[in-house]
Amino acid sequence: MLSRNMFGRRLSALAVLVIATSLAGCAGADGSGHEGHATGSSGSAAAEVSPSADGGPFAGRELPEPRPRPEFALTSQDGAAFDFAAETGGQPTLLFFGYANCPDVCPTTMADVAIALRSVPEDVAARTRVVFVTTDPARDTPEFLGEYLARFDGDLPTRFVGLTGSQADVEAAQAAAEVPLAEGEGTMHATSLLLYGADDTARVMFSAGDTAQEIAEDLQVVARS
Description:
The chain has 225 residues and is α+β, with helices and mostly antiparallel strands. It has a single domain (4-224), classed as Glutaredoxin (3-Layer(aba) Sandwich). The protein is built from 8 helices and 9 strands. It has helices at 4-23, 39-47, 84-88, 105-119, 122-127, 142-153, 167-176, 212-224; strands at residues 50-51, 61-68, 73-76, 81-83, 93-98, 129-134, 160-164, 193-196, 201-206. Strands 1-2-9-8-5-6-7-3-4 form a 9-stranded mixed sheet. Strand 8 and strand 9 (201-206) form a beta hairpin. The chain is globular, with a radius of gyration of 16 Å. The protein starts with a helix and ends with a helix.
């Protein structure tokens, strides 16, 4: 069994490879790149959570109030209707709002999720759903989202699901998940990665700076509950 330090070094090395691969195609179709994240939105989201105390159940940031699995419907990267609550209900689910042209937080977060899923038992990874909702639906077509997420899920037993739709529907999804609405044509968005359990409730979230190891630890906690 790997020690905690050896495990951390192994994850860090894999993260470099995954992120480097994703960034190579993440500059944006129009060359505009990334316009930044909403420090106000992210800040207010971060202010609502705090790191779990020593001995707490989670490695990530425990939510002060559990959040129910949200209900919203968008279009998947396959072009099919995707009802989030119906499709993911009763399964460990990681939900993130971002956009495919993002050069930093979004690919880093997806890389961390991919690393976490490769480090947990295969049955846990197979049961986990990963859903990426675009905050830039004008540019993130279903096909583009599919190509983007394929850089991360690779040989994993579960596929990452990319969702898009009208601007109004995307904003409704953010509101349902209780995350701040993205601004700046979707480029300024909250960095919350919410983890829902089999009980259809989120009690923990992650944000920029949290690690793949923390995601992996909490996935196993949620999968056992």
